[in-house]
Write a structure and sequence with these properties.
The chain is an alpha+beta fold. It has helices at about 5-15, 80-85, 145-150, 150-155, 160-180, 220-230, 270-285, 300-305, 335, 355-365, 390-400, 415-435, 480-485, 510-520, 525-540, 555-560, 590-600; strands spanning about 40-55, 55-65, 65-75, 95-100, 115-130, 185, 205, 215, 235-245, 255-265, 295-300, 320, 340-345, 375, 380-385, 410-415, 445-450, 455, 460-465, 490-495, 500-505, 545-555. The protein is built from 17 helices and 22 strands. The strands form 5 sheets. It has an 8-stranded mixed beta sheet with strand order 6-9-10-22-21-20-17-11, sandwiched between helices. Strands 1-2-3-5-4 form a 5-stranded mixed beta barrel. A 5-stranded antiparallel beta sheet has the order 12-13-16-14-15.
Length: about 625
């Protein structure tokens, strides 16, 4: 007999036991009872986590979202209840009535709130059966993520997942309380909107009522929150779903949640002070921690120089050092001709094996590096394939710049600044994790400020907005937008937590003329700007107040607070890295009728167009 047939037979056999809740009412959760409840008559409902048959007694760990309670079926106390309990299996849903009593001496579980008691069952109801789950419903599971995502509703029963989503709820409520007390008004903005170029690809939605035209799902409510400022709302917020069709990774999803905030008549200081207060409230209410304020600030140029990235993790050292001038005339030709040469000292790293160094070399290749130069500082020599090319003067300069000690290892990267910073900056974080240099349960906040307004896109061969095209240039930098975009700074700021950008924002352009000049600097013709953003320009001509704001990534913030490795662990129903839902099998094909209604045709994989199906098919 197959396992499936056995399961079906069991379900049919147990169907006669299944009852409705009826007039039974839960008195307590499964994580609530303690020794103080000794002797109480209680009614619990939940899932059977484990069943243990000890001959005379049957023990079941009954689970709900609050925890576990051990319930006992005794043949002496309730013979019928005990006899029927032999049918129970993992994940069966049941209700029990019984009396609380202390556990026998030596049988308590100090790891559970309910670990000092058990409930002796007098009567019970089977509310539903369950097939054998594809993985154990417990935190200690070796089930792969894809399997857990395919059965996400079962994965959500695990205590860890329930704790993560409850943490998310508490964070969201703390945010709402703080903003409401600060005079912010929560306003919902459209989900079906106009496609505008904002950086990532849009998710497009075809319109049935307007064939050939499309809505776009919002990448953010950016334009609408600015329009709310024009509308006089002064302080707005929204915990909102956003959509971006982009390549995914551990901290990125095609649909994500953003805490969106905008304020009128403010400057950078006012926005940043408000945001720090919000984080302080979240940490106090949710984590029970007081975080120091004000947060440190670091200009973008300094962050790139010292850490190689614009979201530095300041919990540990391993800072980067620019040694370009020291090795400008080096006998090592790669150093001599490179635009930028940087070095990173790893104290005590001299014991690293060649195999480990080769692994780090492979790692930096992800960021465009061709290799990874290194030197081990020995007592009597510098050990390295490149050491022989360095003069005594160069060695002295490097040793002083990095404060080298015997036993250190130094990693070097040379080339174009973008590659050098990305390779060494990410290697720094990789080493911090591998070598255990990052302290646990530590939260380091940092503001990164003074961002460039533009960055050059090699693929498109033009300057694009570093944040978005509605960011105001820094004072005195308006004219540079047209004459020197590479050196134009923005009134933008990012909040970084432990090397993760958790929030970012800017003071916005509130002048229609400046906004037109921004679009021109980005290569828009006046006609293109009007076609794409005419409604915004028109609004800015109608008495728009100075305004600014920022947005927090709720998923990423909760991930960090929960100590999770991926935002998928703090989202109830996430997508995979291929943007699919393994549980519902989305995305999926749609019917020919739906395509006809939308006026759409699908291309074959060869690139040929499939004719629209004939009516009536």
């Amino acid at each position: 007999m197959s396992e499936q047939t056995q399961s079906q037979d069991l379900q049919q056999e147990h169907q006669k036991y299944i009852e409705e809740v009826g007039d039974w009412t839960r008195t307590h959760s499964c994580g609530q009872l303690t020794e103080a409840d000794d002797g109480a008559e209680v009614c619990l409902m939940g899932w059977a986590q484990y069943r243990r048959d000890h001959g005379g007694l049957i023990f079941v760990d009954l689970r709900d979202r609050e925890g576990l309670t051990q319930v006992v079926f005794s043949p002496e106390i309730a013979p019928k209840a005990h006899e029927d309990a032999h049918i129970l299996r993992a994940e069966y849903v049941l209700a029990i009535k019984g009396r609380v009593r202390p556990r026998p001496e030596g049988m308590t579980n100090p790891n559970l709130v309910t670990g000092g008691i058990e409930v002796v069952v007098k009567e019970w109801k089977l509310l539903n059966t369950s097939k054998t789950p594809p993985f154990p419903i417990e935190d200690r599971t070796d089930a792969g993520e894809n399997l857990r995502l395919a059965w996400r509703y079962l994965d959500l029963r695990r205590p860890r997942m329930q704790a993560n989503l409850r943490l998310r709820h508490r964070v969201a409520q703390a945010i709402r309380r703080y903003l409401d007390e600060g005079g912010f008004i929560e306003v919902e903005t459209p989900i079906l909107t106009k496609s505008t170029p904002e950086g990532a690809r849009d998710f497009l939605v075809p319109s049935r009522l307007n064939n050939g035209q499309f809505y776009a799902l919002p990448q953010s409510p950016q334009l609408f929150k600015q329009l709310l400022m024009v509308g006089g709302f002064d302080r707005y917020f929204q915990i909102v779903r956003c959509f971006r069709d982009e390549d995914l990774r551990a901290d990125r999803q095609p649909e994500f949640t953003q805490v969106d905030i905008e304020m009128s008549f403010v400057d950078e200081e006012k926005v940043m002070n408000m945001a720090e207060g919000l984080m302080a409230r979240v940490f106090k209410d949710v984590m029970g921690q007081d975080i120091p304020r004000p947060f440190p600030r670091m200009p973008y140029a300094e962050a790139m120089s010292r850490y190689g990235v614009d979201k530095p993790d300041t919990r540990f050292g391993l800072e980067l050092h620019d040694i370009t001038d020291i090795v400008r005339g080096s006998g090592f030709k790669l150093f001599a001709v490179a635009t930028l040469v940087k070095a990173m000292k790893v104290p005590g790293g001299e014991s690293m094996t060649r195999k480990e160094i080769d692994a780090y070399t492979d790692f930096v290749k992800i960021y465009g590096a061709q290799g990874l130069a290194w030197i081990k500082i020995k007592a009597d020599e510098w050990q390295s394939p490149i050491a022989k090319f360095l003069s005594d003067e160069e060695r002295k300069g490097i040793a002083e710049a990095l404060d080298l000690k015997v036993g250190d290892i130094v990693f070097f990267q040379a080339g174009e600044p973008g590659m050098v910073n990305a390779a060494l900056g990410n290697l720094r974080v990789h080493l911090g994790n591998q070598l255990g240099l990052i302290p646990e349960n530590t939260f380091n906040f940092l503001w990164v400020t003074d961002f460039p307004l533009f960055e050059y896109d090699e693929e498109e061969k033009r300057y694009v907005a570093c944040h978005h095209p509605f960011t105001s240039p820094a004072p005195g930098h308006l004219e540079l937008m047209a004459t020197d975009p590479a050196h134009t700074r923005a009134r933008a700021y990012d909040m970084v937590l432990n090397g993760n950008e958790v929030g970012g924002g800017s003071i916005r352009i509130h002048s229609a003329e400046v906004q037109r000049r921004m679009f021109a600097a980005l290569g828009f013709t006046p006609e293109q700007a009007e076609e794409q953003f005419g409604f915004l320009i028109s609004a800015l001509e109608q008495g728009a107040p100075p305004h600014g704001g920022l947005a927090f990534g709720l998923d990423r913030l909760v991930m960090l607070l929960a100590g999770a490795q991926s935002i998928r662990d703090v989202i109830a129903f996430p997508k995979t890295q291929k943007a699919t839902c393994l549980m519902t099998q989305a995305p999926s094909e749609v019917s020919a009728k739906q395509l006809r209604e939308l006026g759409l045709r699908l291309r074959e994989k060869s690139g040929e167009t499939t004719p629209a199906p004939a009516a009536g098919n």
